[in-house]
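Format notes (please read before filing issues)

Several people have asked whether sequences and structure tokens are stored in separate files. They are not. Every record keeps both together, in the order shown below: the sequence lines, then the token lines. Line labels are part of the format and must not be stripped during preprocessing.
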Amino acid sequence: MKPANPVFASLGTTIFTVMSALANEHGAINLGQGFPDDEGPADIREAAAKAILDGPNQYPPMMGLPALREAVGEANRRFYGLDVDWQKEVMVTSGATEALHDSITALLQPGDEAILIEPCYDSYRPVIEAAGATVKAVSLQPPHWSLPVEALEAAFSDRTKLIVLNTPMNPIGKVFTREELTAIAGLLEKYDAYAVCDEVYEHLVFSGHEHIPLMTLPGMRERCVRIGSAGKTFSLTGWKIGYVTAPAALMEVIAKTHQFVTFTTAPGLQSAIAYGLGKDDDYFAGLAGALEAKRDILSKGLAEAGFEVLPADGTYFVTADFRPLGFNGTDEEFCRAITEQAKVAAVPMSAFYSNDSGDAPTHLARFCFCKQDGILTEASKRLADWAKARAA
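Then the structure lines:
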């Protein structure tokens, strides 16, 4: 038999699926996979229900409902001062993962190189490699996760077509600083490259930090593809609605990729998200504030259980070093142990690095805090009891 595509054929089951299945098997609290345990704002869900009942429910325009594309364009202006032509520069996708696939596929061809900053979301690399391009990985290191500018520049070459930039950053909760973004912008100009900017956590940024889209920096407007997520902004991850903002010349090609992937997205859900993007500032500030409080609950609980807790400046996630507990195995062994024994699931940090990376830390676990306060408290108690029993 002729072989299938080797990039996808060689992939294993994602760590998120593995740990979620293990959590279900052992009745564990699942702090591994990043989804909220509430159902999102009632008014947005009501708007969706009304839109579905009223119709239309047939194919919407391939680029997305005009109302949602206008709303995305207005959100760019409202939050970041970006002047966007919604008719030529905004497109709706079936989730941000599709938006990433469309953008990367549209920009890359065999012989190109693409830069990833690790640890990173696991969908980036296979899409790049399936397009025939080569990944150049640059690693961030704990506890501060600062951008190693010299190493980043060494990864650039005349073959570099793009960098994938995720800020705020899954899995480590890092928010890139203006200084770091300026360094990236300079390299993009020097090497005539693009940036695919995964900004799905743009509204989940905590006190003392600011999300700055790379697209807002001088010279970056025509080099950046900016991706957002209704699932993250409105805690509606199952709706799978993403949106892309890009200069018209790039959008024209990205849209041609999209038309042969999902073509379009449920119109009733699009209509409801258009309504949601118009919510007042209190909603967006309240979302970040509520998640920051949850981060603090879990961080405090983990610290009291004996972990060394690393800073988390945004997203759904906090990272903790388990070595102070006296556990000497790998991060995968640790996450399996706490899932089976403490009944709390987490994700090993090394899963977010290349398999051949020698830079992957193996002493960190990622915990998700976008859960009910009582669940976070109970998870912390289980981990503390487990650590205490091990030490006895």
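For reference, the curators noted about this record: The chain has two domains: 6-39+283-391, 42-281. The chain has a mean pLDDT of 96.
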